[in-house]
Structure formats: structure tokens, C-alpha cells
């Protein structure tokens, strides 16, 4: 039971650091370092880890070695190792690499859809159909993402009804859960609550996830607002790694360490060992030669 009767007692964190976190890094990162990151996250208790993506290497070169990463990781029973896939080709590659589950991604804004995956929203949804059929035949669960739900770097304001329409389509075609993403981190708590309130009129709350970037420093406030709306699934990235190659200026995802600290304070269960998690984040930051983006990790590691 959480300290507040109105909040969920348990949350599932989807760790997207190895994919969303690393995809935007310009410097080469070795397959060994990526494998180490996934293994460290495993050891810290994450139950769902997005290991990599099977997208065009011309579009996102950093994810080119994802198959080797999948092959090299130590698998822990009960942990879901997920891959991001934009089409059937990506799905087949993910399946061959041993992904337990895949994620498809659509946008709530037309301009972002074009920039990110080179097609309109409706074309992207159409593209997922053969992937969904192949996934169903192979018994592979498919997660859905909707990007730019609280604003778009090209189109500006995004209508909540448009987010609902894309999320509804993803469910209708068979996604078991949909994560809605504030790709450029412009959302605020009030808008977040209003969005989930609208989505929950048609989609069960326990099937909705929140994916917040911290560009404007609002991610934790938005997560708290989502918890108040009964949302129990959040995507986060160790050490706040990340940024989207097709959203200029977008900084990292909310740091997993910061979310865990928030949940600890609220008495909400999550199953993650914060000190191991902070060590995992610092290790990859040392590899990348960049500052740790988690304030909680910085505070803990300086003690
Ligand atoms: C979707 C495409 C492929 C369309 O790209 P396209 O150029 O329109 O597609 P195409 O079908 O014409 O193929 C072009 C080339 O890519 C190859 N190709 C085609 N598919 C694949 C594949 N799966 N894996 C490997 N290669 C592939 C294909 O074989 C061909 O190779 P070529 O003949 O030129 O040598 C491209 O636009 C793409 O890969 N985009 C990926 C963009 C991306 O990964 N963005 C970041 C992830 S989304 C995100 O971060 C947001 C999220 C999810 O985190 C949530 C949030 O924050 O909001």
C-alpha cells in the first residue's frame, strides 16, 4: 500500500536507457559496453529492459549492433528484453536476435512522423499490420509508443484527441500496452493529467504508460501527476541518458534513479535496488565521458 490511498501501490518501470538513452550518442559505443549496461540493469532489478532497436542503420547508426547486444547479454528469468521495431524487417531481425517482445512507434503529430519514420501517421499504422500478424504468429507481445503527445518540435501544440486516436488504433491492432511519450519534454502536470484522463475514457489505465523526457525539468512532476491519474507504468533511462535524433534539443529521458527515489518516498513498490542502479548509471556515464544526468545518482555517489 502506498502512503497515499489515491496512488497505485506498485509501479513497473520500463528501462529504455540502452535504446532511447544511447541511440542519440554520436560517439561509437562498443557492443561490450552496451552488453555491460544491460547486465548491470539486470542486476539492479529492472524487469523490462529495451535493449536496442532494429531500425535502418542509415537513420540511427548507433543502434546498428543491436543483434550482437541481444546475443551477448546474460538473461535473467522473468526479465523481458524488448526491441524497438518500425516494420516487418525490423521485427524479423529482432525475433532472430532473441527479443522477448517488440515495440512499434507512431507519432501523434504528422510532421514528427515524417521526420522520424518517413511516412504519415496512417501509413505508419498500416505498416505495423504485417508486423502485428507476424508477432501474433510467433507469440511475441507488441508494445506501442505514441510520440509527441504533449507537443511536437515541428507542429507545436498537439490535440489530445489526436493522441487518443493513435493510441486507440494501436490497441485495436493488438498492442498489449501503449506508452505515451512527451518526446520533447514540454508537458506540464496539468496537461499530463488531462491527457491521461481523456485516454482512460477509452483505454484501461493499467494498459497506459508514461514516457517523459526532462527537457524542461517537468518529468517528475508529470510522473506524479500520472500517478494521481492511476498510471502504473513508466519508461525511464538510467542516468537520464537520451534524446531523440529527430527532436532537436530534446534532452534525456527522466532518470530511472530519480523516479525510483520518488517512488521510495511515496512507499510505492518497484523492485529496484537504487544503489546498484546508480552504480550502473555512473559506469555508462564514465564510458561515455559525460556528466550523470540523475540528480539522485549524483547525490548518492558523492556521499
Ligand atoms: C522506418 C524507416 C526504416 C523507414 O525508412 P525509409 O527510408 O522510408 O524506408 P525504406 O523501406 O525505403 O528503406 C530504406 C533502407 O532502409 C532499410 N531498412 C528498412 N527497414 C529497416 C529495418 N527495420 N532495419 C534495417 N534496415 C531497414 C531498407 O532495407 C533500405 O535499405 P537500402 O536498400 O537503402 O540499403 C526509417 O525511417 C527508420 O529506420 N527510422 C527509425 C527512426 C528511429 O529509430 N527513431 C528513434 C526511435 S523513436 C523515439 O525515439 C521515440 C520514442 C519511441 O522513444 C518515444 C518518445 O520519446 O516519444
From TrEMBL:
Gene Ontology molecular function, alphabetical: hydroxymethylglutaryl-CoA lyase activity; metal ion binding
Pfam family name, one: HMGL-like
Keyword terms: Lyase, Metal-binding
Superkingdom of the source species: Bacteria
EC number: 4.1.3.4
UniProt catalytic activity: (3S)-3-hydroxy-3-methylglutaryl-CoA = acetoacetate + acetyl-CoA
Pathway: Metabolic intermediate metabolism; (S)-3-hydroxy-3-methylglutaryl-CoA degradation; acetoacetate from (S)-3-hydroxy-3-methylglutaryl-CoA: step 1/1
One GO process term, biological-process aspect: ketone body biosynthetic process
Boundaries of every Pyruvate carboxyltransferase domain copy: 11-278
Family of the protein in this entry: Belongs to the HMG-CoA lyase family.
UniProt cross-references to NCBIfam families, sorted A to Z: PRK05692.1 (NF004283)
Protein name as catalogued: hydroxymethylglutaryl-CoA lyase
